[in-house]
Structures are given as structure tokens and as C-alpha cells.
Write a structure and sequence with these properties.
5-stranded mixed barrel, elongated, 4-stranded mixed beta sheet
């Protein structure tokens, strides 16, 4: 396969290669230039064999990327449905000693970070300054929304709580919940369902909670903080997901919806499966009696009455148990305080297939994070490190030690 192409512009030509990735888009990157091309901000590319000719048009966005004393040109396809039939590289094709000599995968990430906002709507950031600019753009784009941030080390991480990542976990949720409560009975006997779940989450137990934060720099730190059990990757790409939620959809730990969702944790799996199936059927047939007449629903109501003695079934909407919700919880421990922590609380899933209802009430923006070692050093200058994110003696001692390495 011949990945190299010859790009012609007036009387000049240069080597170039196409790059394609479902997250980043479709690009043509040139080798480094000593001179500037006479190009408009948009153009067409006519491809004949391995020769590419520039013409007037609007199919490709043109970016000039400064690299030391040289220029790299990136041609980003605006509409991916019009993708030409060419040999295109992916990140997996671009190791340091790969088949292409004009750039490496690391350089491609540098070029993408220089573009920052990609034509497909995603972002790539390689420093704190650009990241803050993206957050400011979100505030302007969604002025009447509340912003929640989720940072993770792998950019292909799914927004799924730990409980739903393993059938052994979600099939034994009630037993894990009761075991944990029993072990810490003196501390938890008078706690509410959501308080016990957040305590379990704090101690890394599998729960139906997914961590988020209202502080964008905390999420950026999480996207750069390498977990202990993660092997080195070829190219380190993290991600921050910015979720822009309507204020009316946000719940608090005292709200009825949160109580109803969190008490699901104590139901045995067979009851949760039956309740899920009956609710889905009742919604499809518009017949509430389908779920109200089942044993699982009566078992659920009994648990709900523990914290909602005034629970009125006539006002209950079964959809509440299916939809994930953004939840603002009380500042119950130092870690939640230091991380400005919140959660997404997930509801019922199909325990046979493992399918769950995704969080679809929010407008989500993806920010890919590269040059993470450099960003980590910038965050340290802002006093954001392991010691401030995890205010316990173990993490603080590690943070102090690292500062002297």
C-alpha cells in the first residue's frame, strides 16, 4: 500500500498523507514547509492516482500549523460522507518507526491539538490554556445550562458506571450493598440509600454511580492521571466529556427521584429484571396495571416507603426508574469536597442482555487530551495534583515525594 501522495500547488509540490479516525475526522497532512502556500481558508482537492491538485471550492478546511521555523498544512474534510477513496492512515499505522517518514503519530496529535476545534465538532487540547478556552466556548454555547465534567484516562471510555461493566457485579448488587453496610454498620445504619452508595463509590466498590465534577480543571487532572493498573499506550490520549444539562433535569440527594433510583440497589436481581420488563411493557402498551400488579413492584414500593413514607403511587411515573440522572450530593467526605464531586445515578437495566438506558438528556462535547505530561506540570503550578485531589495521607505523601523527583 502506498500511503504517500504528491500535492501540487501552482509550480510547487510536496509529499502528503491522508489520516482518518472516527473520533478525529479525515485529514490530509503535508510534510513540513519552508515557505507559505498561497491558499484560501477552504478549497477542493482533486485526486488523480497518487497526485493531488488544489482547486477552488469548499470541501476542505485549510489549516496552517507552525512548527518551529516551518509550516505544516492540514486539509480537513468538512463533510465525511464525501470521503474520497484513498489510502488513509490511522493512529495504529503511525508508530515511531512506521511506514511514513514525513511524520509520526505523535506529530499528528500535535497537529490536531494546534487545530483544537475539529470540523466534526470534537476538540483536541494539548495545554491548559486551550482547554480553558474550550470551557469558555461551552459557557457561551450553552448559556442556560449547568455544566458537568467527566475526565478519564482512555479517550474511548464509555460513560457507564462500574456496576454495569461486569455481569457478576450487577447480578449481585444487592448482596454487595448489604455486605458493605453490614461491615460498616455503626457508621451506615442510619444513612440513606444514596449516602451508602456514595460511600461505596468512595471506597471503589462497584455502584450504579458515575463520578462527575463541576470543576473543569478537576476533570482535566483525571484525564491526565494514570491509573496504577494501566499499561503504557502507544499514544496517550485522554478525554474530558463536557455535559451541558438543563437545570430542571438536575436532582439533589434529597429529591424523590434520587431516593427511588438509589433504593433499587437493595432489590434482588430477579425483582429488578421483572420490574424492568413490566415497566417497558406498560410504557409500550400505555397500561400502568402491567407493572403495578407484579410482585417486583410491590417489593420496590416497600423499599421506597423506608425513605418516602408518603410515597403516592398515583403520582409515580415508571420512566423515572429507567433514566440516568445528574445528582448533586452533599459534601459528605473530603474527596467529594476537593474534587467538587457530583454523580450520574443510573436506573434499571436489562439484566439479561446488560442493556441500559444511556444519558441522553444532555448535550455532550468531547475534548481529547494530548501532551498529558506537560498538562500535568501546568496543573501542578495551579496546585492541582494528587495531594489536593485525594486529600488522604497516602496520596499527599506521594505528591510530596514526586515534587522532589
Amino acid at each position: 500500500m502506498n500511503y504517500l501522495y504528491e500535492l501540487f500547488e501552482n509550480d510547487r509540490s510536496t509529499k502528503a498523507a491522508f489520516f482518518e479516525d472516527p473520533n478525529f475526522g479525515f485529514f490530509l497532512f503535508t510534510e513540513k514547509y519552508d515557505h507559505e502556500l498561497t491558499l484560501e481558508n477552504e478549497c477542493n482537492l482533486e485526486i488523480k492516482g497518487n497526485s493531488i491538485f488544489i482547486s477552488k471550492g469548499f470541501n476542505y478546511q485549510v489549516y496552517r500549523i507552525q512548527r518551529d521555523d516551518k509550516l505544516v498544512y492540514a486539509f480537513a474534510l468538512n463533510d465525511i460522507t464525501n470521503k474520497p477513496r484513498v489510502e488513509a492512515l490511522s493512529l495504529d499505522d503511525l508508530p515511531i518507526n512506521g511506514p511514513i517518514t514525513i511524520y509520526t503519530g505523535g506529530e499528528v496529535l500535535e497537529y490536531l491539538a494546534s487545530i483544537c476545534k475539529l470540523p466534526n465538532g470534537n476538540y483536541v487540547c494539548g495545554n491548559v490554556q486551550d482547554y480553558i478556552s474550550v470551557v469558555e466556548d461551552m459557557s457561551k454555547k450553552y448559556p442556560n445550562k449547568e455544566h458537568f465534567f467527566r475526565g478519564h484516562y482512555h479517550y474511548d471510555y464509555l460513560l457507564v458506571p462500574s456496576l454495569y461493566r461486569n455481569p457478576k457485579y450487577y447480578n449481585n448488587e444487592s448482596y454487595m450493598y448489604m455486605d458493605f453496610k453490614t461491615q460498616f454498620y455503626n457508621e451506615l445504619s442510619n444513612k440513606k440509600y444514596i449516602e451508602i452508595l456514595t460511600t461505596m463509590q468512595h471506597y471503589k466498590m462497584p455502584t450504579r454511580l458515575l463520578d462527575t465534577t463541576s470543576n473543569p480543571l478537576v476533570a482535566l487532572y483525571m484525564a491526565c492521571d494514570k491509573p496504577h493498573n494501566v499499561k503504557n499506550q502507544k499514544y496517550g490520549i485522554g478525554e474530558v466529556v463536557i455535559m451541558n444539562e438543563d437545570i430542571k433535569n438536575i436532582k439533589y440527594s434529597e429529591s424523590n427521584a434520587v431516593i427511588l433510583l438509589s433504593c433499587l440497589a437493595v432489590l434482588e436481581t430477579n425483582y429488578k429484571q421483572e420490574l424492568y420488563e413490566k415497566i417497558v411493557e406498560s410504557i409500550e402498551k400505555n397500561d400502568p396495571s402491567i407493572y403495578r400488579d407484579c410482585l417486583a413492584y410491590r417489593r420496590f414500593v416497600a423499599e421506597a416507603h423506608n425513605e418516602l413514607p408518603y410515597f403516592d403511587e398515583s403520582f409515580f411515573k415508571p420512566e423515572v426508574l429507567l433514566k440516568p440522572r445528574h445528582v448533586k450530593v452533599g459534601m459528605i467526605n473530603e474527596r467529594i469536597i476537593s474534587q467538587s464531586g457530583n454523580f450520574i445515578l443510573f436506573g434499571l437495566c436489562n439484566y439479561v442482555t446488560g442493556d441500559y438506558m444511556k444519558l441522553n438528556t444532555v448535550a455532550k462535547e468531547r475534548v481529547f487530551i494530548v501532551h498529558r505530561d506537560y498538562i500535568s506540570k501546568q496543573l501542578e503550578m495551579l496546585n492541582i495534583d494528587a495531594g489536593t485531589m485525594y486529600p488522604d495521607k497516602d496520596h499527599i505523601s506521594v505528591s510530596i515525594t514526586k515534587s522532589y523527583d
